[in-house]
From TrEMBL:
Recorded coiled-coil stretches: 25-52
Top-rank lineage group of the source organism: Bacteria
Keyword list, A-Z: Coiled coil, Signal
Keyword Coiled coil set for record: yes
Protein name: Uncharacterized protein
Signal sequence, renumbered to the chain: 1-23
Source organism (scientific name): Phocaeicola dorei CL03T12C01
Length: 807
């Protein structure tokens, strides 16, 4: 996520906007205090929502408000969650939900992103719309089986909600952490009810969890390995439970086991909670044996009870068995899965052979396990049941004279060179009990370095390519070392095998790639040689029509090896953001200012000047179905063609003409790449020059230390051509001035007059005269210049001031 981007947005949303200047530390501190208060309020509101979830309440209404949402629970309590209580609202809150047609809807508007498959299957679990690092919304599309950039900007979004199934996912941006505060709120009574379900760890143990007791044998006299009662529980037992609602707070919940012995009733505690953690709806409980736990073969029915202040729930019972194994009968073996995915194949050989890709590595602890070979049908892999041995691996004496292999911390590697292929090394694997270092078993492992593991592999590269504004093709160059390593081939083997190419185009109606005889003129693929290296490449043409946009795939089939190199590309037009030139915008309208042609003002202007994107090819068109006849739009020039005079022949107020609706499109190679953006253009008159009110007269007397001061500001007037009074007798009309973005009047005298004793306050217009010590021999006129700057120019005026001589 682009945290700087979002943080800046939220800061703007929380601050109270002001056109003044910060003049003291107190003002700054007050703003910081306001932000802290608002963040505290946010935390408090989210805590209140969490409390409702803990109480088993559910959402009956979730209504968008400016900058947030109002949440109403089943007990009729309501909370409003916003991005800032007293600041500017920023962007409106956003709501995502799955419609009855299976597509994602954003603020009740259907998107192209399908959330539910054709047969009703859900998309990828847990993938809801979210904001990506580029500031756009991302959504999972079951049609393409991908999480995709929707191209929909999330700029300014600091609060959003996703309705997914029976839950709302509420996300509120936290300026302090730079992350979203998220909470899952149940939408139905069923979803709000506390529910606990046991999650089996292994598919072949659907209802059982096994705690193994490793016995040293009753007749063992080795006191170093003699435990209490000759047996001891090897590890804590870990249980996983799915808890809903997923956002419930279990930090203070009472959690314990209900245990019934299947064979007989036990006295005292059998199973206790040693530790617990809760994340993403999964409660993980680490259990330890209680005083009544039998270390001999027993079976227990176990359920978990979870209780908070408002609710309690009990999981279904599952089977816990306690069985004893003599650790003197353990051995090392290799467990592999068969074609059905079951670990039914077990290699108990004295020496276990294994292939190692010459560029890969082999972690013995992940590959080998221990089991009781006298009853291996019952115990395929003791690691499943909590038994955690550790391994020591060393080269067998006299092995690997060419130093092709290394081993460190139980991880075996080759030297990474193709020269190691065909060589092998035997290692001695020793397995120990973590509790006391007792050596359980030892086995020889012979590792062979191979160029390619005997399975078909595919190297795939997928990307989205944005066309450029220039007519420049794009080339993707494969990283061949990455290709060789992935496929397990040397470069010589790869290129000697040769290749063929297949082209595919994505068929949206069939939701699959369809092979074609050509690439539709969009992509081409082949081989090139640069910098002493051969490589595969794919070229993407830049000059495309809308019909050619879409997804493409090239498959390089590498000889008869079964290996493939695949390149997938989604070709899209670039995402373009139009940047407004604020000199030509006011209150959301583009301003089309008049211009002087001869002695007449013509209401006409080029609309392209409203944007700063000078490198873009923009075209403006009238909205379809427009029936107005008082304007003309040709070659991006908008002209008002209606009469500028009323029935009496007087000039009308141009600014009161209804705005014109216009569509702006971005072109690439003369083709529109978007659906256009609707804007409104408003006509405006320029302002006349500044004049003085009738009979305005300013005089003062030549004095060295004058007592009288002249207030020049009260005399000025400023109107538009249409007669709008921007300034009247020195008073500015804020509304009209705001329309023209007219600034306060500025006053100044010439350097020559200033040297002789004239001065004027630039902002208040207060004029004083203080001669330079030489008395005036005649009356003198000082011309004070006054200016008002506005959006389309500067209005200028002159105020004459007479200084009378005393001689």
């Amino acid at each position: 996520m682009n945290k700087k981007f979002l943080s800046a947005i939220l800061f703007g949303a929380l601050m109270v906007s002001s056109t003044g200047t910060f003049v003291s530390c107190k003002d700054y501190d007050d703003d910081i205090d306001n932000i802290n208060k608002e963040l505290s309020t946010l935390k408090g509101d989210l805590s209140a929502l969490q409390a409702k979830v803990n109480e088993g309440k559910w959402i009956t209404s979730l209504a968008p408000t400016t900058g947030g949402f109002t949440v109403t629970f089943s007990d009729n309590t309501s909370y409003t969650i916003t991005n800032g209580k007293d600041g500017a609202a920023g962007a409106d809150a956003v709501k995502w939900e799955i419609g009855t047609d299976g597509f994602w809807y954003k603020n009740d508007v259907k998107t192209e992103y399908q959330a539910v498959g054709q047969a009703g299957e859900a998309g990828v679990a847990g993938v809801s719309p979210y904001i990506g690092e580029n500031g756009n919304w991302f959504a999972y599309n079951t049609e393409t089986k991908e999480v995709e950039d929707t191209g929909i900007s999330a700029a300014g979004t600091s609060t959003y909600v996703v309705k997914n199934g029976d839950n709302y996912e509420l996300h509120v941006y936290n300026q302090t952490t730079g992350e979203y505060e998220s909470i899952v709120l149940p939408a139905t009574a069923a979803a709000a009810a506390l529910n606990v379900v046991f999650m089996p760890t292994y598919s072949d143990m659907q209802t059982k969890v096994v705690a193994i007791n490793i016995s040293v044998g009753d007749d063992l006299n080795d006191k170093n390995h003699l435990w209490d009662n000759n047996v001891s529980l090897t590890n804590d037992i870990v249980f996983n439970y799915r808890v809903s609602p997923a956002s419930i707070d279990l930090a203070k919940a009472n959690i314990g086991f209900l245990v019934n012995e299947v064979q007989s009733r036990a006295a005292g505690s059998i199973l206790d909670v040693a530790d617990k953690s809760f994340a993403d709806g999964v409660l993980t409980v680490k259990a330890k044996a209680g005083e009544a736990f039998s270390l001999k073969n027993k079976k227990y029915a176990v359920a978990l009870q979870v209780q908070n202040d408002a609710q309690s729930a009990i999981s279904t019972y599952h089977l816990l068995t306690s069985q004893t194994i003599d650790r003197r009968n353990l051995t090392v073996f290799e467990a592999r899965k068969d074609d059905n995915g079951d670990e039914s194949y077990m290699n108990w050989s004295t020496t276990i052979p294994m292939d190692l890709l010459y560029t890969g590595e082999l972690n013995v602890a992940d590959t080998l396990s221990v089991g009781d070979y006298t009853s291996y049908n019952s115990y395929k892999d003791l690691r499943k049941y909590g038994f955690a041995p550790y391994y020591e691996v060393a080269k067998k004496a006299g092995e690997d004279k060419g130093n092709y292999f290394t081993v460190e911390n139980g991880v075996i590697k080759t030297n990474g060179q193709i020269s190691s292929v065909g060589h092998e090394c035997t290692f001695i694997v020793s397995v120990y009990d973590k509790k006391d270092g007792y050596k359980l078993a030892e086995k020889e492992l012979t590792v062979s370095s191979v160029e390619k593991i005997a399975t078909t592999k595919t190297y795939t590269k997928s990307e989205t390519h944005e066309l450029t504004l220039e007519s420049k093709d794009y080339r993707f160059k494969f990283d061949m070392n990455d290709v060789y390593n992935t496929l397990g081939m040397s470069s010589q083997t790869f290129w000697s095998a040769g290749y063929t190419r297949e082209y595919y185009i994505w068929d949206a109606e069939r939701s699959e790639y369809v092979q074609t005889s050509s690439s539709n003129g969009v992509i081409s693929a082949g081989t090139a040689y640069e910098n002493n290296e051969s490589f595969l490449y794919v070229n993407v043409k830049n000059i495309l029509t809308k019909d050619q946009l879409g997804k493409y795939k090239v498959v390089f089939k590498i000889g008869n090896t079964g290996a493939e190199v695949v390149y997938e590309v989604k070709v899209v037009y670039p995402e373009v953001t139009l940047v407004k030139d604020n000199d030509y915008w006011k209150d959301g309208y583009m301003i089309n200012a008049g211009k002087l042609v001869g002695s007449n003002y013509i209401m006409s202007g080029d609309l392209r000047r409203g944007y700063k994107n000078k490198d873009l090819d923009l075209v403006f068109e009238t909205v379809a179905g427009e029936t107005r006849t008082d304007f003309d739009l040709t070659n991006n020039i908008l002209t008002y063609t209606g009469s500028c005079n009323d029935k009496e022949g007087n000039r009308i107020n141009i600014s009161k003409i209804d705005p014109v609706d216009v569509m702006v499109f971005v072109l690439i190679n003369g083709q529109k790449i978007d659906n256009g953006t609707k804007i409104q253009v408003k006509f405006a008159d320029p302002l006349k020059n500044i004049t003085l009110k009738k009979d305005a007269k300013f005089e003062t007397t030549d004095k060295k230390n004058p007592a009288d001061k002249l207030q020049l500001n009260s005399a000025i007037n400023l109107v538009s051509i249409a007669g709008e009074k921007v300034i009247e007798n020195g008073t500015m009309d804020a509304t009209i001035a705001g329309y023209y973005n007219a600034q306060a009047a500025k006053f100044e005298v010439s350097e020559e007059d200033a040297a002789k004793g004239a001065s004027v306050n630039a902002t208040t217009g207060e004029f004083t005269w203080q001669n330079d010590g030489v008395a005036l021999t005649a009356n003198k006129t000082i011309n004070v210049k006054v200016t008002v700057t506005y959006t389309w120019g500067v209005a200028v005026g002159t105020i004459p001031v007479t200084v009378k001589s005393n001689l």
